[in-house]
Amino acid sequence: METTMLPEVTALGVIIKAVIILAVIAAIAGFGTYIERKILAFMQRRLGPQHVGPFGLLQLAADGIKLFTKEDIIPQHVNKVIFSIAPVITAATAFIALAAVPVFPDFTIWEWVPLVGGTFVPSIAADINVGILFVLGMMASGLY
Fold first, then answer.
1. Is the pLDDT of residue 10 over 70?
2. Which pLDDT score is estimated for 78?
3. Are 123 and 103 in contact (CB under 8 A)?
4. pLDDT > 90: what percent of the chain?
5. Which of 1, 50, 75, 134 has the most C-beta neighbours closer than 10 Å?
6. Torsion on CA atoms 93, 23, 122, 109, rounded to nearest 10
7. CB pairs under 8 A, 24+ apart, for 123-129?
8. How many CB atoms lie within 10 A of CB 19?
9. Nearest CA-CA partner of 104 in 24, 7, 3, 5
10. How far is residue 53's CA from residue 62's CA, in Å, rounded to a whole number?
């Protein structure tokens, strides 16, 4: 009986998988927001987003700039570090649950790509035997 050896899973491969997943989620969320605004504008008989770029397609970029340039208001009686990191912890529990979910097949990055060429990117970031239990546990620990 012949067994095939999978390439070694490295931290770089897992990081690349995480970046790809987060980029896809961000793109889908942005496009969904654009479509939602267009549909709401149609239902309310108004124009919707159209002033930023052609057909309002740069509205996502304008929203991102607005988000990152907003002032953070932190109350005086709170621990500033915990207050600032709480949203990150909440979002992280949702994304950690994706570590045990195979989103796309295993692949290896082409050798000619600088810095990351030849890196094996696994389909599952955390190869654990209790995958579904891990996903349910992480979903239960999140606030959403």
1. yes
2. 92
3. yes
4. 3
5. 134
6. -160
7. 124/99, 124/100, 125/14, 125/17, 125/18, 125/98, 125/99, 125/100, 126/99, 126/100, 127/9, 128/100
8. 10
9. 24
10. 10
The token pair that represents 113 in the structure block = 């790509």
Place of tokens 């490295």: 10
What amino acid is encoded at 135 in this protein? V
Q: How far apart are CA 35 and CA 30, in angstroms?
A: 9
Q: What is the DSSP string of 82-140?
A: HHHHHHHHHHHHHHHGGGGS--S--EE--TTSTTTTT-EE-S-SS--TTHHHHHHHHHH
**Please, what's the b/e burial string for 63-96 (b: 16 or more CB within 10 A of its CB; e: otherwise)?**
beeeeeeeeeeeeeeeeeeeeeeeeeeeeebeeb
| Spatial separation of the C-alpha atoms in residues 77 and 112, rounded to whole Å | 54
19-76 pLDDT, tens digit each: 888 888 888 888 898 889 889 888 988 877 777 788 878 888 888 888 889 888 889 9
- Which pTM does this prediction carry? 0.66
Give the pair of three-digit tokens for residue 89. Answer: 């912890």
